[in-house]
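Example for reference:
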Amino acid sequence: MQNAPRRAGWPAIAIFLGVAALALAILLTERSRRAGPDDRRSASVRAALPRDTIDMRSLGYAHGAADAPIVVYEFSDFGCPYCAKFALETYPELHREFVATGRVRWTYVPFVMGNFTNGDAAALSSECAGEQDAFWPMHDRLFAGQREWKGSRDAADLFRTYAAALDLDVQQFQSCYAANRPGERLATHNYVAKALRVRATPSFFINGRLVEGALPLEAFREILTTLLAS
């Protein structure tokens, strides 16, 4: 029995965003960056929409060459178990094969779906580590310890322990966490995720195409390889 012919291009789950829709996505409007993490302050961002723009390049934390032919934006929640599996098992190989070789620029955008215990606190911790240029080490530590902090009654104490283990300035980390200094940034990430209709975690925008879910390594590799060959 012959194998069914493979369809060219992307898997069926990949959705192409038209040029106009993508332009609107990249040029999301916002008058100010005053929004905080709560709904009332986020509403002020929505009310300000018709004025200025959000540059997608200002979001998240990037790995890879700025001129890479493929650009990936990953929207992910630290509390999502599928996001953890992808981060710990799939992304490291993609990084070695595509990001470290200059072919893909990968930006991780932490946001909060609101479905996972302590997910908002974990996102805050990642941003406070980012304040000390340690987002990616904290990213890895949060996913490795996901079960631990999701089941904790004092996740903040665990996050301080993680910060110390990563040789961060713990006093600065605690100050950032207590003052919610990244509140504006996280509110913007959350708003952009909603505006882009991100409904699954993790979700990826790959050169303007949406892929939902933690794809297996081979499936993700096929997508990137196909784009590079086109």
Remarks:
- Residues 81-99 form the longest helix (19 residues).
- The longest strand covers residues 70-76.
- The CA atoms of residues 121 and 156 lie 7 Å apart.
